[in-house]
Design goal:
Layout lengths: L7 E2 L3 E2 L2 H6 L1 H16 L2 E6 L4 H8 L5 E7 L8 E2 L2 E2 L1 E2 L10 E4 L5 H7 L8 E4 L23 E9 L3 E8 L11 E7 L5 E8 L6 E5 H8 L4 E10 L10 E6 L5 E4 L9 E6 L5 E8 L12 E4 L6 E2 L9 E5 H4 L8 E5 L8 E7 L5 E6 L2 E3 L13 H4 L3 E7 L5 E8 L7 E10 L4 E11 L6 E2 H5 L9 E7 L13 E8 L5 E7 L1 E2 L22 E6 L7 E7 L12 E6 L5 E7 L6 E5 H4 L2 H7 L4 E6 L5 E7 L10 E2 L1 E2 L1
Parallel strand pairs: 3-4, 3-8, 4-7, 8-9
Antiparallel strand pairs: 1-2, 5-6, 10-15, 11-14, 11-16, 12-13, 12-15, 16-17, 18-23, 18-26, 19-22, 19-24, 20-21, 20-23, 24-25, 27-32, 27-35, 28-31, 28-33, 29-30, 29-32, 33-34, 36-41, 36-44, 37-40, 37-42, 38-39, 38-41, 42-43
């Protein structure tokens, strides 16, 4: 069964309460509180803020002798609460109980309100023993303030020659954070804590790097595959922890990168590709809570099919389990796609594709599925806005040089009510010229339509050698099907090395001053978002270069060319050099850091440097990656993050 917890709302944003009761430092105090309640005798429970049932979902009040439950909101009176009808808190007086449990943080004021109702001799308990130490709080006046729980998880492995590297920037200090730092907790595969430590952050916009190999040396650890819990203490501006996750190997043929984990566990994820005949697809199920994932709570089904097959095993608190998709769906084959029934048990997961070629060589690549929305319905109004919003929602993706790379696309349904996808694919040259387009029709939810950029081009060439692909809604094929949550998986195959990389993302409206439902999206402040601030980390070794593909999508005509600065920064946020780029509207720009800046500039920037991509004239969408040249070299690709 899905967990009955609130994690994210598109109206109010992310919830801090589930993070508070699920924080690694809250687990032990929660068990102590439960032991006290079980030993207390008869317990009355007061739930003034609707926090009781989520607490029970995560920590379980099993064994507590709950004799009655009470509510403050009259609308809750008579409603079921822990399987009992809630009574008005005014009825607490005179009840024969030994203890009163107030299910709330910062409970002193709430207890004071009902002090006259608490039976004589009854001991009072609350959630306050679960509170983090004050030194870990950003806002000490309001415990559940979102900035107190700027947290996230990252897949973290250092085993059998495979390593991971979390890279981000201290963007919190750019928003006024004084001295933020990281509180970190590494969980092993069994969910046990392998290490806890703190890490200082550099100055504003400085680079933050957490490398699994360095962590392993620091704590003298054996091989591990688990997850890293990241807590930014003293955050400002954003309670969202964004990062790039590089997975690299001792061998040159292992390299991947993925986006952050999206810190709010979801009911469903989608966009998980079924394996080809020469592949295994491993879904890394990583429990985000201090309670077990029950056997049967996680399941997989082919997209558009109702029959789901459950994982018939328990996953311990904070533990990691490698779920081979074929163990549940043995007949699933690319280009089918898999829906993940996650039940809010874990944040956006990673999946690993392991491919064995004809020569017996094994290659690994890691990517992530995306959140499948349960709150969306088709929005017929979108079809009426083309006169105002032009192309409206656009999903842009790079087309790499066709002489070397195959660019493959698989549209992915990302809403539980999405029965059809009416789509058009458009190919643009780097200079913004439309070269080709194809109407894909009204794709059913269970479609297996995969296509290549070369298919759309149909013999035409891209004069610039590269360009980009845009997926947009085709309202002529289905004017009542669009919901604004258009997604696709994009796979790139290198004809030189044989390596592949893939990424998935969703559509947005771009570069129009009119707004619709918070689009064009803004990283900070109100819509529209009409400027660019993207983080591009550089390679971790001398033989690894960084590639970037910037796309200038426009829902309606915008500035003819961008005014884009590529700024090479040291890890401490000091500018070393900059290059200016003018990208055509509806065009793109593909570059490598090692070819854009001189070797002297790169040497001066030093280890863990990055490139800040800044433009105040338009919103760009970017993809970043790493590449090793050579016959055995690998490359990585995913979408970028901004701040």
């Amino acid at each position: 069964m899905p967990l009955k917890i609130e994690t994210f709302s598109n109206v109010t944003g992310g919830s801090s309460y589930f993070k508070a009761i699920g924080h690694p430092l809250a687990a032990e105090p929660a068990q102590a509180l439960l032991a006290d309640l079980r030993a207390a005798g008869r317990v009355a429970v007061y739930d003034p803020l609707n926090m009781l049932e989520p607490f029970d979902e995560i920590h379980h009040l099993t064994g507590v002798d709950v004799v009655a439950v009470y509510a403050q909101d009259v609308a809750k009176i008579g409603q079921p609460l822990l399987g009992r009808p809630a009574q008005p808190v005014t009825a607490l007086a005179g009840t024969a109980v030994d203890a009163v449990f107030v299910a709330a943080f910062d409970a002193d004021r709430l207890v004071a309100h009902i002090r006259h109702l608490i039976p004589a001799g009854a001991k009072v308990y609350s959630l306050d023993p679960l509170k983090l130490p004050e030194e870990l709080l950003t806002d000490r006046r309001t415990y559940l303030a979102p900035l107190n729980f700027a947290t996230n998880y990252a897949f973290f492995r250092d085993s059998a020659g495979h390593h991971t590297r979390v890279v981000t920037a201290n963007y919190w200090s750019s928003y006024g954070a004084a001295e933020p730092y990281l509180w970190l907790c590494l969980f092993g595969e069994d969910g046990q804590v392998l290490a806890r430590w703190t890490q200082e952050l550099p100055g504003a916009d400085g680079t933050v790097v957490i490398d699994s190999a360095a962590v392993r040396r620091k704590f003298d650890l054996a091989d591990f595959t688990g997850q890293l819990f990241i807590h930014v203490v003293g955050a400002a501006g954003h309670d969202v922890v964004k990062y790039a996750l590089d997975t690299y190997g001792d061998a040159a043929d292992t390299l991947s990168c993925t986006h952050d984990a999206n810190a709010w566990p979801s009911d469903f994820y989608a966009g998980l590709p079924a394996p080809r005949a020469d592949e295994r697809v491993i879904l890394w199920v990583q429990n985000s809570h201090p309670c077990p994932i029950p056997a049967g709570a996680v399941a997989l089904n082919l997209m558009g099919h109702d029959t789901a097959v459950a994982l018939d095993r328990e996953v311990p608190p904070y533990a990691t389990y490698a779920l081979d998709v074929a163990s549940l769906l043995p007949d699933a084959r690319w280009p089918q796609q898999v829906e993940i029934r996650a039940g809010k048990h874990f944040v956006r997961p990673r999946y690993e594709v392991i491919r064995t070629d004809a020569a017996g060589a094994t290659r690994h690549r890691i990517a992530h599925p995306n959140v499948e929305r349960v709150d969306l319905k088709p929005d017929p109004k979108l079809a009426t806005l083309t006169n105002l919003m032009g192309k409206g929602f656009i999903l842009p993706a790079p087309i790499f040089p066709a002489g070397r790379f195959r660019t493959i696309a698989l549209p992915t349904p990302m809403g539980t009510t999405q029965s059809h996808l009416p789509l058009t694919a458009i190919v643009y040259d780097a200079d913004g010229t439309e070269v080709a387009r194809r109407d894909l029709g009204r794709l059913p939810r269970d479609h297996e339509t995969v296509f290549e950029a070369a298919d759309i081009l149909d013999g035409k060439s891209l004069p610039s050698g590269y360009g980009h692909l845009e997926l947009i809604y085709d309202f002529a094929a289905g004017e009542n099907d669009a919901d604004g949550w258009l997604h696709a998986l994009f796979r790139y195959e290198d004809g030189v090395s044989g390596h592949a990389a893939e990424t998935s993302f969703g559509a947005h409206m771009f570069n129009t001053v009119l707004t619709y439902k918070n689009e064009p999206q803004s990283y900070s402040g109100r819509a529209p978002g009409l400027s660019t601030r993207l983080f591009l980390r550089t390679g971790m070794a001398a033989d690894v270069d960084t590639l970037c593909h910037l796309i200038y999508p426009a829902s309606t005509p915008w500035n003819t060319r961008s005014n884009t600065a590529l700024i090479l920064m040291t890890k401490d946020g000091e500018e070393i050099a900059r290059r200016m780029v003018a990208i055509a509207c509806s065009g793109s720009f593909h570059f490598r850091v090692g070819q854009t800046f001189t070797s002297g500039e790169i040497k001066q920037a030093g280890r863990d440097a990055y490139v800040l991509i800044r433009d105040t004239t338009c919103r760009l969408f970017g993809y970043h990656g790493l590449i090793r040249e050579g016959a055995q070299g690998a490359f990585a690709l995913d979408h970028m993050f901004g701040f």
